[in-house]
Amino acid sequence: MKTLFxxxxxxxxxFHSKSVLAWGQTGHRTVGLIAQKHLSNKAKKRISQILHxxxxxxxxxWMDEIKSDSSYDHTHTWHYVTIPTGQNYAxxxxxxxGDAIKAINEITRTLKSGALDQAEExxxxxxxxxxxxxxxxxxxxxxxxxxxGNDIKLKFFWKxxxxxxxxxxxxxxxKQLSYTELAAAIDHVHKEDLKAWQSQGVEEWAKxxxxxxxxxxxxxxxxxxRYRYMYTNFSIVKRRLVQxxxxxxxxxxxIYG
Length: 257
Prior knowledge:
Strand content: 5-15%
Helix content: 55-70%
Radius of gyration: 18 Å
């Protein structure tokens, strides 16, 4: 009985870990592919030397894949940041284990230092690619009340889900697009927008996610998320993905370009 209990507990914890991923594989790879297309020639060459055969799109999901490796337990809180409604990051209580804003800023400084060996530079670069995507998912800037929407149980087209999962992957997967198709469909940015997006800092990206909460939490009365919710909100998904890709490229050009 004890063995059965511990097996059940491990499965439960594993499910919980998977439930807090951001964007899912398609979303993260879309961000990475868009970033790849907006790199300067110098940054593209240097990143190719670091990652070898691995593209930004393919390395973007690594930080989720290592969640089962206990040596990376210290990175679990990096995937999100909690900023209660009506507060800002500077004034709110920080997670002592770290958060997405702190991690992105520290990793950027570390990569800029140029003092890393090959293996560590690969790790830090993979972290950065993933986390820039994470912070653009609105529910990864949580309000501190429902674990970024994980506690809000819903139906998604009549199947059990939760609000976080719907934003991570539900709406994206419903479109049945590959990440290359999705990137090609949304990567059409005016130069003025590109410049403006890349001029803003990480805290501004988080503020944008906070500002989207009203839309995210405007749920149907029967708690069955269907076509109307997708019609209203998929434009937000597309905008956040392309913003993440453009801003990731800006950071990488700054570091390596």
